[in-house]
Amino acid sequence: MANAVTCLLMAAVVLAPLFAGAAGGKLSTRFYDRKCPNLQSIVRLAMVEAVAAEPRMGASILRMFFHDCFVNGCDASILLDDTADLTGEKNAGPNANSVRGYEVIDAIKAQVEASCSATVSCADIVALAARDGVNLLGGPTWTVQLGRRDARNASQSAANSNLPSPGSSLATLITVFGNKGLSARDMTALSGAHTIGQARCTTFRDRIYNDANINGSFAALRQQTCPQASGTGGDGTLAPIDVTSPDVFDNYYYQNLMSKQGLFHSDQELFNGGSQDALVRRYSGNGAMFAADFAKAMVRMGGLMPSADTPTEVRLDCKKVN
Ligand code: HEM
Ligand SMILES: *[C@@H]1O[C@H](CO)[C@@H](O)[C@H](O)[C@H]1NC(C)=O
Ligand SMILES: *[C@@H]1O[C@H](CO)[C@@H](O)[C@H](O)[C@H]1NC(C)=O
């Protein structure tokens, strides 16, 4: 009996990696050290080129990672294209015409497959590329935990319900991040991602015309390119989220909040007389403290795992299941 059980257990251990199993398992910083030793240099070089061609790409890939992780964990579910059987996340409200950089991930994946085929998950590539994007724009670096697996499913409705909207209140932001096991402090640090990148007029129109706690000259500046009437052509016009230095990962985001120049209602909620005011003040005066907290919070966010019953695999093409 004992022998039979041992035998079964051993068979399971030996055979497990061959199957497209369920999610789970521990992440490790050395997961690909032997299996794909060139992985990190391939990703880094590709991001060097992508960010040199367009600095905003560092921001776009960072946001892609956030939107992946908040929907059933960091499992590259966001990368799946819609098919007859699958309504994916790309066309969910927070992602459609908004999340970008898919082609950068596809190009990295092709290079990684050429170097070590069927080994590295798309989810891990996004995690590494997001880290490098931040660092290449002047932000911190950190060691990325690896060993994520790619989901064989995705959920447009989960993407619509799990991601915060730019109209969110502070209480809602704390709840949405709390639902993912992230603290209010993590939330405030991670929001510092808005020190880089661009946003469409539709996402901040309400704030620049209707909010009370906004800097008047800042509102006037943004109103110049974001007309009050929607559907008149200005909806997609971009503005930098950080008015001071949109291509540099620094702590000006927090200084802007203190002068009421947060672009989204949700940004300004972090400094509007509530529980995060003190932390915003500290980050605004201490860039090193922000950078360290941001890096730690990114590792925590990157640890969000798909639910145990999620079917997973190492996808060969990030856009579709094997
Ligand atoms: C706290 C709640 C958050 C809300 C409500 C929010 C909302 C938004 C919105 C509305 C945009 C503009 C999208 C568009 O115009 O198409 C945006 C852009 C961006 N978000 Fe957030 N976000 C939040 C947190 C985060 C987090 C945690 C990260 C990453 C750690 C992040 C990274 C970014 C980046 C980098 C951009 C610019 C992307 C680009 O230029 O392509 N955001 N966010
Ligand atoms: C994928 O399927 C599993 C099992 O049914 C489920 O728990 C998970 O939430 C699904 N993924 C998404 C993104 O909803
Ligand atoms: C509004 O923003 C300007 C910079 O554009 C700044 O000099 C000023 O102090 C801000 N006003 C308030 C009330 O914070």
TrEMBL record:
Task: Give the main localization category.
Answer: secreted
Q: Which UniProt keywords apply?
A: Calcium, Disulfide bond, Glycoprotein, Heme, Hydrogen peroxide, Iron, Metal-binding, Oxidoreductase, Peroxidase, Pyrrolidone carboxylic acid, Secreted, Signal
Name the cofactor(s). heme b; Ca(2+)
Record's subcellular location: Secreted
> What Gene3D superfamilies does this protein map onto?
1.10.520.10, Peroxidase, domain 2 (1.10.420.10)
Disulphides? 36-116, 69-74, 122-318, 201-226
Residues binding heme b are 194
Plant heme peroxidase family profile domain boundaries = 26-322
Under the heading CDD domains, the entry gives: secretory_peroxidase
Q: Which residues bind Ca(2+) 2?
A: 195, 242, 250
The protein's matches in SUPFAM superfamilies, at most eight in alphabetical order, are given as: Heme-dependent peroxidases
Cite the InterPro entries for this sequence. Haem_peroxidase (IPR002016), Haem_peroxidase_sf (IPR010255), Peroxidase_pln (IPR000823), Peroxidases_AS (IPR019794), Peroxidases_heam-ligand_BS (IPR019793), Secretory_peroxidase (IPR033905)
Q: Which GO terms describe its biological process?
A: hydrogen peroxide catabolic process; response to oxidative stress
Q: Family, per the entry?
A: Belongs to the peroxidase family. Classical plant (class III) peroxidase subfamily.
Name of the protein in question = Peroxidase
Organism equals: Brachypodium distachyon (Purple false brome)
